[in-house]
Design goal:
It holds the Pfam family HD_5. By secondary structure, the protein is α+β, with helices and mostly antiparallel strands. It has twelve helices and ten strands. α9 packs across α10 and α10 crosses α11.
Length: 362
């Protein structure tokens, strides 16, 4: 399969990877043939890229770091909890919601088990979802990315659970913000921005009163918008005054936000997102944690379509954990854009191809 921007797919193309609704259920499944109406509807729902079946890349299979079943269960749990809080905001004033903490312990335990079963973790977030599901799918992606960093740091099981639950629920305060504010396609006013920023304190107040959720997990909600140089909010904390869990979640939050389409902008490619993050090391983010994070993220994920400096284009067939910016590319087109007579692969890590670079993701 290969991943293409929605503007490059055409009627007759066949979906190779399911597209999910906001609650984690399948919207369009594998094997569905696209029609003009389907494509138009996907654009309306905010889907900006698709995995399609292709005879030249049928053996290329991007694999998420967690199982589809685990992801669905996690998204469903986040969706039910957050929508309940949106519909019944008075719950936040209760001492606790029944089984709130224990249910998310179970959810992250499954994520942790999936991550632990992998020998070498190089994250390739390949799940596609509608724009309205961003808040719920984003929470699960942030938990995955944060969990990878926690494992790389050698966290023990208790630390992993504290970080994981904090990451899954870091944005729970957004349930108290009017939806039109966090889905607004235009710039917010100063008053609206202040209202949105208050979600960090509201999230902390919700989590600190829940059974089986530690205060340090709740600090992921409170501090994930603090910045390493003290320019963040709500308290303008800096450096080690920000809890390490929150510093990890902050990196994961911004990365997944950048690579996701939003109402006010298109998604960034993983390579552009990682370049932005690295440029902010020890300004917005802890540089040591950032380096650890970037060691475990696929800059050019498997099945990505890329343009090379030679003018050829192709699909990423393998990634190299030793050099994440030098994957193996299956060449599909010549310099003039014509299809190659027979596909072949080049390993950009090989000395023979060291002068060749990836210009952009298509």
């Amino acid at each position: 399969m290969r991943k293409l921007h929605i503007t490059s797919v055409k009627p007759g193309d066949v979906i190779a990877k399911s597209i999910f609704q906001e609650n984690g259920n399948v919207l369009l499944g594998i094997g569905v043939q696209l029609t003009p109406r389907y494509i138009e509807r996907l654009v309306q729902l905010g889907i900006d890229s698709l995995y399609i079946q292709d005879k030249h890349t049928e053996d290329i299979m991007p694999e998420d770091v967690i199982r589809d079943e685990t992801r669905k269960e996690a998204v469903d749990a986040v969706y039910k909890t957050m929508t309940t809080l949106m519909d019944q905001p008075q719950i936040k004033r209760r001492t606790s919601a029944p089984d709130f903490g224990s249910s998310f312990q179970k959810v992250f335990r499954e994520i942790f088990q999936d991550l632990s079963s992998r020998k070498d973790i190089l994250v390739n977030l390949s799940s596609l979802h509608v724009l309205d599901g961003y808040l719920f799918h984003h929470a699960v992606n942030v938990a995955i990315l944060s969990g990878v960093v926690g494992m790389a740091k050698g966290y023990n099981q208790q630390q992993m659970m504290e970080l994981g639950i904090g990451a899954l629920l870091f944005d729970i305060g957004m349930t108290q913000v009017p939806k039109e504010l966090w889905t607004m396609p235009t710039e917010l006013s100063a008053e609206e921005r202040q209202r949105v920023q208050y979600h960090t304190e509201e999230g902390f107040n919700i989590l600190r009163n829940q059974h089986n959720i530690s205060v340090v997990s709740a600090h992921c909600a409170l501090q994930h918008h603090e910045r390493y140089n003290g320019t963040g909010y709500p308290r303008q904390l800096s450096e080690n005054n920000i809890h390490e869990y929150a510093r990890i979640v902050a990196i994961a939050d911004v990365y997944d936000a950048l690579v996701s389409p939003r109402p006010f902008r298109k998604s960034y490619s993983p390579s552009d997102a990682t370049e932005y993050l690295f440029a902010t090391g020890n300004t917005y983010f802890d540089l040591d944690l950032l380096k650890l994070f970037l060691q475990h993220v696929a800059i050019y994920p498997i099945a990505s379509t890329v343009l090379l400096s030679t003018g050829h284009s192709g699909v990423v067939s393998k990634v190299n954990s030793l050099a994440v910016n030098r994957p193996t590319i299956r060449i599909l087109t010549n310099e003039d854009g014509s299809e190659v007579a027979s596909t072949y692969e080049i390993d950009l890590y090989d000395k023979e191809w060291m002068s060749v670079t990836i210009v952009k993701t298509l």
